[in-house]
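S1.2 Input.
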Amino acid sequence: MQWKTRRSEWVQPKDDARTAFDVDYARIIHSGSFRRLQGKTQILNLGDSDFYRNRLTHSLEVAQIATSLVRQFRQDNQDQPVFDHLPEDSLIQVLGYTHDLGHPPFGHGGEVALNYCMRDHGGFEGNGQTLRILARLEKMSGSEGADLTRRALLGILKYPIPFSKAHNPARAPRLMSGPSVVRLINRDQSKPPKCYLDTEQDVVDWILAPLRAKDRKTFCTPSPKKGQHSRARHKSFDCSIMDLADDISYGVHDFEDAIALGLIDQGLFKGAVDDVACASFLDFLKEKYPDQYGNNIYDRFVEQLFADGNTRKHTISRMVGFFIKNARIVENKNMDAPLLRYQASMRDGPARFLKALKDFIFASVIKSPNVQHLEFKGQTMVVSVFETFASEPKAFLPRDAYTLFEGSGKDVRIICDHIAGMTDAFLMKTYDRLFSPRMGSVFDRL
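S1.3 Output.
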């Protein structure tokens, strides 16, 4: 029962038929931060099309895949000790729905921009902001945010090390030294470490309180890397399921969007993801559908990916199903607590295929000039709005945000919270109101 408790110590009424995790689910579905995901960039810029995925549709897909993984694990592990520790459907759906809540406008570009803006105030990281939203900022309780169960917050804690321990001072955010006319962020230097924010240390202490000291120490020990930020070594069992679902969605669904919008072609794909990388999936197709792929399974598979929408969707569905069926549970015997000991993983061959897809999307789509131009523009707008608000908060912050700012002892983190919670469109509207001569009205809602 200790994993079903809440920081507020609220106790569910006895006539409430829901489980504790059903309550978590309801709180997320009805939260403002969840709704705002519909207006935040996934990879491709919002406004170019209403077809491809945004943060909300991506989160729905992650939750669906994560639920399928759990059901596959239940089927495959009915007689194993791990069976009793698999999460309820409502819990794993909560993790899928919330895993990107903390990402600011313009995706990872906005994250880099806010980390630069917060360079002297504890930094910024999207996953850390997710925990902050759910534990403090959402309006479902007095001061505990959404006041989710302890197990839900453990699953949300994707990187269990604080910013102060993960951050490498040699990687401190800064401007580029080359340009002489414009001020540009050094985007590589300004990437944040993967962590939680130091402001949430008391929340993390509460989440991990039921664990033995040995498990807590192992779970929270960072892995240093020369010249880079330190990385977390471990995730909880529930988090590992969600993270695997996120990888599948990124590697397959974002890939599907790129094909549908003509950003990649067969030649580009074949040059990056060859038949060796696909070998495990090709073997699956040969065994499962012996009459559909002929002698050259790889070429037929690629043709189907780049065919009409119906054929492509059918192939994408087979890819997702293949990854789900090839997920497995492994044990980390250095951990005693079941919620840390068990981990979701992917078998070797399918893991190579998924990695090849993810690497291809990163190199060919995310790092393409088409996307990078818009990411750069988004970063510029985020920094401009932040610095304007911070220069004179009383003049520029909306009244409710300024009230919070004053009540916090003028903590700049409140300005960061306000901007991180904006949708792409609202950030652009705010930027236009501040900087575009012909935009804005005294009747605009701030």
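S1.4 Remarks. The chain is about 55% helix and 5% strand.
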